[in-house]
Amino acid sequence: MTQRKIGRGVAIVGAGMSHFGAFPDLASRDLFVRAFSAMRASVEKGLDPAVIQALYIGNYSSELFEGQGHIAPLMADWVGLTPIPAIRIEDACASSGVALHQGIIAITSGMYDIVLVGGIEKMTDLPTEQVTDALSTAGDVLYEIPAGFTFPGFYAAMASAYMVRYGATSESLMAVGIKNHDNGARNPKAQFGSTISDIMAAKTAKAQNKGYAVPSWENELDFLHDDRANPMIAWPLRLFDCSPISDGAAAVLLVADDLAPTFSDHPIHIIGSGQASDVALHDRPDPTILRAARRAGQQAYEMAGLTPADIQVAEVHDCFTIAELLATEDLGFFEPGRGYVAAEQGLTRRHGLKPINTSGGLKSKGHPVGASGVGQVVEIWHQLQGNAGERQVSGEPAIGLTHNVGGTGQTAVVHIFERR
Amino acid sequence: MTQRKIGRGVAIVGAGMSHFGAFPDLASRDLFVRAFSAMRASVEKGLDPAVIQALYIGNYSSELFEGQGHIAPLMADWVGLTPIPAIRIEDACASSGVALHQGIIAITSGMYDIVLVGGIEKMTDLPTEQVTDALSTAGDVLYEIPAGFTFPGFYAAMASAYMVRYGATSESLMAVGIKNHDNGARNPKAQFGSTISDIMAAKTAKAQNKGYAVPSWENELDFLHDDRANPMIAWPLRLFDCSPISDGAAAVLLVADDLAPTFSDHPIHIIGSGQASDVALHDRPDPTILRAARRAGQQAYEMAGLTPADIQVAEVHDCFTIAELLATEDLGFFEPGRGYVAAEQGLTRRHGLKPINTSGGLKSKGHPVGASGVGQVVEIWHQLQGNAGERQVSGEPAIGLTHNVGGTGQTAVVHIFERR
After folding, report:
1. Can you tell me the distance from the alpha carbon of A50 to that of B50, in angstroms, rounded to the nearest whole number?
2. Mutation choice for B interface testing from A62, A105, A150, A413 by most B CBs within 10 A
3. CB-CB under 8 Å, B277 with A85
4. What is the pTM of this model?
5. Which B residues, 35 through 94, put their C-beta within 8 Å of a C-beta on chain A?
6. Tens-place pLDDT, residues A196-211
7. Is B356 helix (H, G, I), strand (E, B) or coil?
8. Backbone torsion region of residue A70, taken as left when φ is above 0, otherwise alpha when ψ lies between -120 and 50, otherwise beta
9. pLDDT digits (tens, 9 = 90+) for A256-273
10. Which helix (H) or strand (E) holds B251?
């Protein structure tokens, strides 16, 4: 059983995001207004919001993070869209990737022609421990969390299994973090505007200024191996293997293909969309693959009539560095067990053979969990339009992909985009 | 701008629910298994679950109520449906009504042919005050909740405005509760299996047995006016004006019309589906109408090519008794300000002109909030199939309606069903 080709084409004619980061003065509604405004400004021929017919908003848990439920009509209200249908979609950290899938279906159905898809999360109001607890509810709270798992623990389990099986090392993981910070430093909306080298230099300067013992890091790997600079979170994952706690919002405007010229002469077409589910991690036979991601990817490739080799730029779900390595294998970019070699060899860098997470990824751009899926699409939009600035990949890419995961892989959703 | 006719017909070929009530030994996954099993047993020609292609599950807040997020793939797992896409929809108490709308769109799109739509809520693990707090997050937590509002307060505001404007009284509200308990007493899945008379008799008998002063209630209204038997919650709403805190789940199986004969010779067709949003209550000009419900109803009528007069049986969102009165007006069954007269005159009783909430409604059947929308559909399924037992309305109804509201009316969704 496979999903079918999209009967009626769907295009993106606008995309935008708020800054990702920690914004104590902004509630989720404020962040969404910023994302909406950025999206609106990106619509080449202008957008009258009154033409929007439905809102799909991905959000993991505004209830736990902000004490605000029923967020969909609230977001609709704050950007002036009531009385249109407003639907919140939740699939943990894949919430807005899944919202995109639903927005596509809504247009394909013929019920709606013009649909706003957004994502929002406001996480930094709570102390870190409470955020960790809130995120852990995306595991199985009866069978996994009582065993002591948190999300760093889940992904640490995947990482150690992967290292044992294939010979990857801590430095394989570090290669991902170094690359993603290098990209994020070129993304003005990213939470971290610094390369690891920048951070290293800043810490060195600070020690000098304060008269502390000056660390003798020779290079980025040296810095990342330092337990004080990069403490262990859950072996083998250190601080710089983990995406941050973030606030942020993102939005894209979907329209039926035939309406795209009304809004833009440079739309991006969605040519593949796949979604799948899986059992919780403790029930899976192999922690080094995410079956849902493989399946969602296969569906998207089949729908698009493409293979992994056709993808020129991709945003994948690097909630932890190990997750990016697994993603590049699950998506078929590299053979199982070869993703880490590719990362170490620089194939996934901005000007490598297969550029991955040019935005900085969740690691450096930030991971406001419900917004991350649509945030990925915003980056692909820029890359395919050729306006990604300093982080633009070479070769005028025409085909891009996003890969968004919920929990430990109980949900995955993959989309493929084309500039024609 | 209106929603269009459904291009590809959608039929319900199976419907079932768990018991609604308080079940300390069952988690939401257990309740959903029961609903799924009841649904499966109702499929006339049998159901191999392997044919199901997607799951849409409505849930308000398993995060707050149970500490479990990312519930969609978990529900899929527990009924053996992974790896199909599993999507949680949240729109407060309209969550599963909205999930139904999305399930319909999914089939109409041609992306899926066979879709399971469910609803689930497990509320009774928490103390009542915490449940009230959790529900209040469906209001605006920045602009309404700090003013002291809880949901009984919101609906009390609507009720007092309605009473002042139209001359309705507490007894108008009581007429709704009496009717709904009379219906719920005939529903073996209902939380309350008792009429108000039954409850009155039981309390009298208990007083006699214990040697207490025996109350001298002459009739149900007399009982409902007694502050000890029916305490004031938020004037003018008393205990018996409020739906209970409930656990429960419900499920329906949707298929493309052309596939219906594979599953059943007696499908129920969905001929109208409308959804709308609105601003929070404090921003609305008139608390005696729910504009989103009016709009959703108009869309559904238009899609179905029907008028309010054509509806032979309806389940409406009576989270509080006042809500049922407003619903019967918003849906056009009665003129504004005449809903309470109709209720007092018995027009909405089981064998009245316009039977409303034959299931017992949220008031008596129970209100596990995320399950209520699909729970309503289960009742209409039974009524249109003519197998609603003791609560079957007369005249072999062929057209039914469901009306599901989120929050104070920031979301509303209306569906119309037909037996051909």
Report:
1. 42
2. A105
3. yes
4. 0.97
5. 53, 55, 60-61, 63-64, 66-74, 76-77, 81-92
6. 999 999 999 999 999 9
7. strand
8. left
9. 999 999 999 999 999 999
10. strand B247-256
Provide, as residue numbers in chain B, all residues whose Cβ is less than 8 Å from the Cβ of A105: 102, 105-106, 109, 111
Q: Which residues of chain A have pLDDT under 70?
A: 1-7
- In B, which residues are within 8 Å of A72 by CB distance? 90-91, 277, 411
Please say whether the beta carbons of B420 and B107 come within 8 A.
no
Interface of A with B in 389-418 (CB under 8 A): 406-407, 410-411
User: Of A61, A72, A102, which is closest to B87 when you measure between CB atoms?
Assistant: A102
Chain B residues near residue A68 by CB distance under 8 angstroms: 137, 140-142
Judged by CB atoms closer than 8 Å, whether chains meet at A70 and B90 is answered as: yes
Give the number of C-alpha atoms closer than 13 A to the C-alpha of residue B248, restricted to the C-beta side.
30
First and final C-alpha spacing in chain A: 29
Q: What is the mean pLDDT of chain B?
A: 96
CA distances from B97 to A161, A241, B17, B275 (A): 43, 41, 14, 9
In angstroms, the CA B401 to CA B393 distance is 14
Q: In this predicted complex, what is the ipTM?
A: 0.96
d(CA A153, CA A163): 15
Helix (H, G, I), strand (E, B) or coil at A271: strand
In B11-70, alpha helices (H): 28-42, 62-66
Cα A204-A210-A212 angle, rounded to 5 deg: 70
Minimum Cα–Cα distance from A77: chain B residue:
B279
Q: What is the band of B4 on the pLDDT scale with cuts at 50, 70, 90?
A: low
Sign, CA torsion B200/B201/B206/B211: positive
For residue A315, what pLDDT is reported? 98
* Secondary structure of residue B121 in the 3-state scheme: strand
Query: What are the CA-CA distances from residue A122 to residues A62, A117, A128, A248, B239 (Å)?
Result: 7, 17, 13, 6, 36
Mutate to test the interface with B, among A2, A29, A32, A63 (most CBs of B within 10 A): A63
Q: What's the Rg (C-alpha) of chain B?
A: 20
Q: What is the pLDDT of residue B2?
A: 43
